[in-house]
Amino acid sequence: QVQLVESGGGLVQAGGSLRLSCVASGIVFRLNASGWYRQAPGKQRELVASISTGGRTNYADSVKGRFTISRDNAKNTVYLQMNSLKPEDTAVYYCSAGAGWRYWGQGTQVTVSS
Question: How far, in Å, CA of 9 to CA of 93, rounded?
Fold first, then answer.
């Protein structure tokens, strides 16, 4: 059984930073593409950042230069370092992995106050 468990969300002021973590069981991150999505109220879920099995990263234009996705193979954990946070970054952030983004975590709330 695959489980993805996110943590690290919270309330932060604009300009602040947070680091999200996603720990996996039942799936090996280094053998699967993984990524972070987010969904704000009334909006569609969007891909924020992804990392391939080879370590190649991609980012949504709205977070380029501010967010960094990384992976610790030994800990089977994917991270999302979020700097210079803006109120528009407020959303539930989800970890996903596997072919076709098959597996999902339960989400963690990130709230950025102005």
Answer: 8
